[in-house]
Specification:
Elements: H1 7-20, H2 24-39, H3 45-56, H4 62-104, H5 109-137, H6 141-157, H7 161-178, H8 202-228, H9 233-245, H10 253-265, H11 271-282, H12 291-302, H13 309-341, H14 346-375, E1 379-384, E2 387-392, H15 399-414, H16 419-436
Antiparallel strand pairs: 1-2
Helix pairs in contact: 1-4, 2-4, 2-5, 2-14, 3-4, 3-13, 3-14, 4-12, 4-13, 5-14, 5-15, 5-16, 6-7, 6-14, 7-14, 8-9, 8-13, 9-12, 9-13, 12-13, 15-16
């Protein structure tokens, strides 16, 4: 039976998740699953997967949207705001601090060591969560096939996540109607979960919520226009990253190529700086799309518009972060009530059986990609016609990363250590290695 958290418990839990949410979307989804479903028991498995499937279809950072959705389910709008903000805030503050260090040319050996160790712990946590979700969500031969197909379609053909998920939903619905045993349903249609009936006036309230979220989203951009003029760099940052926020289907990696090209073309960052920014984003907690904040920081630093450069850079980082994540609250607060009511729909329940399988494949791909980047200094995507491959230089294997990752796997699977204990130990070991082997 799901447990209802107090608002204080919600805040403390998502503050902890925000600090430890390394590993990109796969790591963050895995961590929330472990805490919210396994440890806290706020949601059961079907409810969690229902929320995850909806967030996977949205533009923007799906892990932050999932955190917002969980907060909304437990404490309404204030819970969604608290969970969504706390999920991003620690990583954003760390990214801002690292941006200052980067701009001032200060070394970050100690910070690098902490992140180095934590990434090994997150890799083990991601693998553990992937196994758990696969065991619970894949009940028949067709779900296993859909998961494998999703993995291969991303790996070999770079097919967008939403297309894969929509296709899996259609396949699941069709197969469930004609051959339910292939879906592991024992010849019966999927059970429809209990869900609240959408109350009267919900559409009007959702419309008002959408208008409020839109106003909050665009308020800083309008303020910059009125106070600094339409040609100011802060306005350009607000408009550019607002556009990115509505086209980033499939997570951060789906838009990074466009961001890198546009950022360089506009003179906001050099190619080397774009790579450095992605590296910083991948080694801090929070969504990888926090690279937007780094680019906004550099853009305003280079074109301060009469302000002190570091003040302008801070405002540029804040503007980029605001317009990147504010739309997520719009998608959740305006859409989640309708999505929840659809849990009564048998056809949707059938489609979600297929979508859950595809999500397993998606998480598996991201976990593999993350793992290769943890273990090897050189892991890149290359294309040959329609096919895409991951190219790894075996000589770039990092022995220290491999050792830490193996130790983390032993702690998680063998010694069955808790997440906090594993992360803390790996962070200490990472610092020791960076100090001894700079």
């Amino acid at each position: 039976m799901p447990v209802s958290p107090t608002f204080r418990d919600l805040i403390l839990t998502f503050a902890r998740i925000g600090v430890l949410s390394f590993g990109g979307a796969a790591g963050q989804i895995a961590m929330m699953h472990r805490i919210v479903v396994d440890e806290k028991k706020w949601l059961d498995e079907p409810r969690y997967l229902h929320a995850l499937n909806y967030c996977m279809l949205l533009p923007g950072p799906e892990a932050q949207q999932l955190a917002t959705y969980i907060g909304w389910l437990t404490h309404g709008v204030r819970g969604g705001l608290a969970a969504g903000i706390l999920f991003v805030l620690p990583g954003s503050l760390i990214m801002l601090a690292l941006s200052f260090l980067y701009a001032l040319g200060t070394g970050t050996t100690l910070v690098d060591g902490v992140f180095f160790g934590i990434k090994a712990a997150v890799l083990a946590i991601v693998i553990q969560a992937l196994i758990k979700i696969a065991r619970r969500g894949l009940k028949g031969p067709l779900p296993y096939g859909l998961a494998a197909a999703a993995f291969l379609l991303i790996l070999l053909f770079d097919l967008p996540f939403p297309l894969i998920i929509i296709g899996a939903g259609i396949a699941g619905a069709l197969a469930t109607g004609f051959a339910p045993r292939l879906m592991g349903l024992g010849g019966k249609p999927p059970a429809v979960q209990s869900a609240p009936v959408l109350p009267s006036g919900a559409a009007v309230r959702a419309f008002r919520t959408a208008l409020a979220c839109l106003a909050v989203w665009w308020a800083p951009v309008l303020a910059a226009v009125l106070l600094l003029g339409p040609g100011h760099v802060l306005v350009a940052i607000g408009l550019f990253f607002s556009k990115l926020a509505v086209i980033t289907f499939g997570g951060a990696y789906a838009v990074l190529a466009y961001l890198a090209q546009a950022g360089v073309d506009m003179g906001w960052a050099t190619p080397r700086q774009m790579i450095d920014g992605l590296g910083l984003a991948e080694t801090t907690p929070g969504p990888t799309i926090l690279v937007n904040q780094f680019v906004g920081f550099l853009a305003a630093l280079k074109d301060a518009g009469g302000m002190p450069p570091l003040v302008a850079a801070s405002l540029g980082a804040l503007m980029a972060t605001w317009v990147t994540f504010a739309p997520s609250f719009l998608w959740i607060f305006a859409g989640a009530p309708f999505v929840e009511s659809l849990r009564r729909n048998a056809a949707l329940a059938a489609a979600l059986t297929g979508i859950t399988a595809a999500v397993v494949g998606v998480i598996a791909y991201v976990a593999v990609w993350f793992g290769l980047n943890v273990l090897f200094a050189s892991a890149t995507r290359v294309s040959e016609g329609w096919l895409h491959f991951v190219r790894v230089d075996p000589s770039s294997l990092d022995p220290a990363a491999a050792l830490l990752s193996a130790l983390a796997l032993v702690l998680v699977f063998g010694a069955r250590r808790g997440m906090m204990e594993t992360v803390g130990l790996m962070a200490l070991l990472g610092v020791a290695i960076k100090l001894l082997l700079p």
